[in-house]
């Protein structure tokens, strides 16, 4: 019998060792097996690995948009699916012009013109069956049709102005025509924001699903609302923004200041609210910088002032070979005009 001792491997040798454990018996098997009794397998080094395997591993799957004049590339399928909404389909019915993101959405939209609703009941084996909408709105100039009487009842409140749902929060008293709108409003009191943006490095949260949908257009660049005014090709991500823009063409100013001896009128409700603060002297926005505490009547003015402390300059000159940056957008625009002189 040989007296030679079995040569034990160095400590560094175990860096390339993989312990193989029988998964059917669970992790408890590790307690009854010593380190030298375990099955040891050497990890393959890079030079031992097949070159074709490395090429497959390093290759990244990309999603390319095949729409004409686009060809954008996305690393994930989620980002690609969200981007496809930019390339919408326009309804061909006369006087409609509704824009949808896919063919299925177009089919759903066409039911409005046909006054029918498609029913698919898998349990009962009913497919592609059409059911009419018997309840019609008799308000002058409306004519919308609905499948259920309750849906028609909610629709009629848009004409009558009825608001049966009250907010019970102290010192609020707002009223709403639909229960869903009341629930969304109550989140402004509770601070609940159940809808989160899943875009990379964003994570913003919102109290309404519609607000999240509009926010996603910031990432995708989708602007489904076009200005139909002649010689105007502007597009907008929100319908409200389009309505406000249309007033720049029509000159409409529906919001009037009710302050004594002031008859100014405005095209946007937000502009009217900001204007009223010039009468009341209200300054509800304070600078949060330590030791400052300045107050402002406009949130935009407060943000611009805050950049004096932080040194942030988010607006960059778009002219080639010019790297100047500015803290205010109006200063950036004035600077760009100096290049055109």
From TrEMBL:
Pfam families found in the cross-reference section: zf-C2H2
Localization of this protein: Nucleus
Keyword terms of this UniProt record: Metal-binding, Nucleus, Repeat, Transcription, Transcription regulation, Zinc, Zinc-finger
Membrane-crossing segments per the record: none
Single GO MF annotation: zinc ion binding
Hydrolase is among the record's keywords: no
Keyword Zinc-finger: yes
GO cellular component, one term: nucleoplasm
Domain C2H2-type: 63-87, 89-118, 135-164, 165-194, 195-224, 225-254, 255-284, 285-314, 315-341
InterPro entries: Znf_C2H2_sf (IPR036236), Znf_C2H2_type (IPR013087)
PANTHER family from the UniProt entry: C2H2-TYPE DOMAIN-CONTAINING PROTEIN, ZINC FINGER AND BTB DOMAIN-CONTAINING
Protein's recorded name: C2H2-type domain-containing protein
Organism: Rhizophagus irregularis
